[in-house]
Amino acid sequence: MSSAPADFRSDTLTRPDAAMRAAMAAAEVGDDVFGEDPTVRALEVEGAQALGQAAALFVPSGTMANQVAIHVHCRPGDELICEERSHVFVYEGGSAARLSGTQVRPLRADDGFPAPEAVRAAVRADDVHLPRSRLLVLENTHNMAGGRVLAPERFAALLGVARERGLLVHIDGARLANAAVALDVPMARLAEGVDSVTLCLSKGLGAPVGSLVAGSSAFVAAARRARKAFGGGMRQAGILAAAGLLALRDGPARLATDHARARELAAGLREVRGLQPLAPETNIVMVDVDGARAPSLVRSLAAAGVAALALGDTRVRFVLHRDLDASAVPRCIAAATAWARTA
Ligand SMILES: *Cc1c(COP(=O)(O)O)cnc(C)c1O
Q1: Cα of 264 from ligand 1 centre, angstroms
Q2: What CATH number did the domain enclosing 163 receive?
Q3: How many Cβ atoms are within 10 Å of 52's Cβ, its own excluded?
Q4: In testing the pocket of ligand 1, which one of 200, 201, 286 has its CB within 8 Å of the most ligand atoms?
Q5: Looking at the predicted structure, is the pLDDT value of residue 343 above 80?
Q6: What does the pLDDT look like over 302-327, one tens digit per residue?
Q7: What's the 123 CA to ligand 1 centre distance in angstroms?
Q8: pTM for this entry
Q9: Neighbouring residues of 183: CB distance < 8 A, sequence distance ≥ 6
Q10: What is the DSSP letter of 49?
Q11: How far apart (Å, rounded) are the C-alpha atoms in residues 311 and 149?
């Protein structure tokens, strides 16, 4: 049994491997705010292509990627529509309100993806009393719904409603590569016809820092201004973009392993008394814990060298990623089984 802790708390925990560190050390750099960093440029060109968009912008985080997009798309007093557990609504420090004066209209949807009829019904009439409905934000995969994948038919229907009602569409694609691998389609297919899309290079793809936000050339030009205003203009950022390039090129091929291990973990935990894992679609396993014992489970796992995140008293999240070795899943199942015997 390996003694290094098996850390399932997040796929942001991955550390750059030796090849990535070597690429970073060797990166050609310049001042990116002057537009003179060749490695950042290369990443933005390849990223735009991978996401099927005309242009892309390298930003420090997924949060900034989403927030510059909201800032470009919405004027103060506009309303954006999203699912109620969306990252842009719950986990970005209220930035849509803080930075863009944008009001959020959250919709409830068990699987993380609002029904097209619900979106249609949420669009405000053209009336001076009402905010202007401006933007639909879709999260693919949906983190808090358990890494759920937005099915292409549902995506097409949502895009249709947005077009019909004059909404712009933004995809929070922090884990879009996971969705693409799960559906066995190129990422670009999952962002066809949208106004902007993001991708986190620093999650399962393995880069230490950085995200992309992509769209039309005009969108990216405006996003570049917003990034600078938000304090995200980076200088010799090619050091980071070199890691991002490897993440973009080589990262997706690794994700199928994470997804297979997520299924193994869920299958193992399903046999443990008191635990009900949701069936994983990608690299996230949400587990409901009977009797408000999520904190007890997490403490017990930690004592056995397995880290996971309690989401309140009744749910624990496990995220698979490339820095977990083959022993991590069996070790986690064994530790949970031991917990169930004593708890
Ligand atoms: C992680 C994540 C982000 C961005 O997070 P950062 O920590 O700012 O990079 C955005 N959306 C979703 C769905 C995420 O899981």
Answers
A1: 25
A2: 3.40.640.10
A3: 17
A4: 200
A5: no
A6: 999 999 999 999 999 999 999 999 99
A7: 26
A8: 0.97
A9: 149, 152, 189, 190
A10: H
A11: 21
Quote the Cα angle for 74-71-242, to 5°.
140
Ligand 1 pocket, residue 63 CB under 6 Å: yes
As beta bridge partners, residue 137 has 170
Out of 233, 250, 267, pick the residue that ends a domain.
250
Evaluate whether residue 337 is within a structural domain.
yes
Same domain, 146 and 259: no
Asked if residue 341 has pLDDT above 50, the reply is yes
- Ligand 1 touching residue 87 (CB < 6 A): yes
Q: Which of 213, 230, 250 is the last residue of a domain?
A: 250
Q: Measured from the CB, is residue 200 less than 6 Å from ligand 1?
A: yes
Closest by CA position to 135, among listed 215, 212, 207, 211 = 215
Query: What's the full length of the chain, in residues?
Result: 343
Q: Is residue 298 part of a domain?
A: yes
- Tokens representing 103 are 């009001």
Listed residue (118, 185, 195) closest to 150, CA to CA: 185
The answer to whether residues 37 and 119 belong to one domain is yes
Q: Is the CB of 143 under 6 A from ligand 1?
A: yes
Query: Ligand 1 in contact with 174 (CB < 6 A)?
Result: yes
pLDDT at position 4: 79
Which domain CATH number covers 263?
3.90.1150.10
Pocket-testing residue among 14, 170, 172, 319, ligand 1, by greatest number of atoms within 8 A of Cβ = 172
| Cβ atoms of residues 229 and 187 within 8 Å | no
CB 135 within 8 A of CB 73: yes
- Please check whether residue 13 lies inside any domain of the structure: no
